[in-house]
Amino acid sequence: METRYVDLHLHSTCSDGYYSPEEVVALAAKAGLLAIALADHDNIDGVDAAIRAGNEVGVEVIAAVELSSQWLEYTDMHLLGYGFDFQDPYLIRALSEFQEFRAIRNRQIVERVNLKLIDEQRQPLDPDAVRKLAGGTIGRPHIALALRQAGYVSSNDQAFERYLVPCNVPKRYFPADDAIKLIHGSGGIVVLAHPPYVTRDRRKLEALVGELVGLGLDGIEVYNNGSGLEDTDWLIKLARGHDLIVTGGSDFHGDSGSMIEVGRGVRGIRVPYSCVEEIKAALEKCTVKKIFCDVVWRSK
Length: 300
What we know:
The chain is of the alpha/beta class and 300 residues long. It is built from ten helices and nine strands. The chain has two domains: 219 residues, TIM Barrel, CATH 3.20.20.140; 59 residues, DNA polymerase, domain 1, CATH 1.10.150. Strands 1, 2, 3, 4, 5, 6, 7, 8 and 9 form a nine-stranded mixed β-sheet that branches.
């Protein structure tokens, strides 16, 4: 029986998580995990700190990122990048542009929420206080927390329903082909995150995965919070049918009241170390392929 576990989908204060990269690693060590991947949204600022913290406590840390992407009618489809060069200047520049947009978007959401609060004759949120709550990049969960602390809502769900959804500002997305090229160009591999949240229609998902494989998709996040045991089995078959790797993670953000912990997703989902071995094998295959292509190109 597998007793070596990992978590390949974690968030920190560098996007919309509540714990710093170092704190996330400490939680992973406490949970007895052998390896993790810090996969912040459109952001790799915490990767280096997480790797250094992992070296100190004996937790292997894989460079990762969760890209907001779209393809055809699928908007806000998330793609996970693994094992890339997190110092690649082109990758850093592309993600920096996204972070600037994200910061502006979240400020605009706070402004819209405050206008709604004023209409309700309530005290508006202090943007500086929201930034302090975030401890880094502001995300909508941090605004929800500020609303809860102000006593305007009793839960995150209520915050989203009453304020954050009506006051939303549209996100920006990477076209899926550009996202895949971006990660491949920096030496990484690409995995489709939590497929049931993209679509629960299996025929549509099957067709979408076929499209993404044609664009260079390397794997599927089989172990995810949206999948039950039957879904997981089906996703494994789908992945193997396309010669894709399987990965998994808790999608931990650290918000209070959540059932999700570092190393354990909804329904106690755990991810075997074999997923890390699959990532490493895929990365090695990509490296060999890149070397071969470079040799062929130079010989012309």
